[in-house]
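Worked example 3. Consider a protein that binds iron/sulfur cluster.
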Amino acid sequence: MITDQFNRVHDYLRISLTERCNLRCFYCMPEEGIRLRPRSELMSNEEVVEMAKIFVSLGVKKIRLTGGEPLIRNDAKKILEDLSKLPVELAITTNGILVNDYIDTFRSCGIRSINVSLDSLKKEKFKFITRRDYFDKVISNVNLLLKENLHVKVNAVVIKGVNDDEICDFVEWTRDKNAHVRFIEFMPFDGNKWEWSRGVSFLEIMTKIKNQFGEDVVRIKDGKNDTAKNFSLRNYAGTFAIISSITNPFCDTCNRMRLTADGKMKNCLFSQTETDLLSAMRRGEDIAPLILETIWEKKKLRGGIEKMEDFSKQKNRTMVAIGG
Ligand code: SAM
Ligand code: SF4
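Given these inputs, the predicted complex is written out as structure tokens:
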């Protein structure tokens, strides 16, 4: 088992397949893009699978593929197929643009749950946030996933003055859709010009929803390692949740580890240190002790960031290069 000094068992690995993306969401990726690492520095599909096997041998039970946009990698299907042979629950986080090309692969690989990022239900605003014109494609792919009876979680990062006026629209959108909308507090990463004054807190989100839907809002049970607080509305097909990493972090039950596309392990989204597993693996070293050591060093709370004012002092990667 992979445990830290606070008795947290880590059995969930998020693997970033790429730092590239076909969108430019302003909260994640700088407008000009990022300096991409040469291909030779990134994990090949065989290396992704080899890494995954080692983590699984140490007790990992769930693997989520992310990025960048994981589905733009041209060997993504092969990676999904190879990982689906491991004894793990396989999941994926995507911006949804290429989902229609992968529906059969999702089915054959036993993927039941897909997280799709969608920050606005309005075409023009979607374009403003993502700096690209793919709204219709994403909406049609969300509908396709729902039609195929996949469990769809829609991730919306809430930014003041941008999409906070759509919080209740998103909830209303779940009236006849069996989707789970997750409102995410805006988090700081390199290059995203974060200021908490642009963020919208758990309390503000909840107040807007309660003001509109009142007593119909019902708190529902969270999963064991959930990062979200979950709610439903009476007689609505879908549910919603709030991920409050800034105002109300969920570190106590954290079971997550991250592997970047260039094979660096991070023990927390906010950690400022990384362990170079890929170089060690390429040298033929046993990386299991490095993995155990990296988690043992994990800080109790948000990579060691205790106070709000410390967020802006942190040195991290851009989100697109970490893998959300
Ligand atoms: N491209 C895929 C997507 O958009 O779903 C996967 C990678 S993306 C980095 C993963 C998740 O991180 C998305 O749901 C995105 O909204 C979230 N994210 C990115 N930057 C964020 C930020 N600054 N604060 C909160 N969430 C963020
Ligand atoms: Fe790309 Fe996802 Fe980041 Fe948007 S949030 S820029 S889709 S990686």
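Take a moment to read the result before moving on. The radius of gyration is 19 Å. The longest helix spans residues 45-57.
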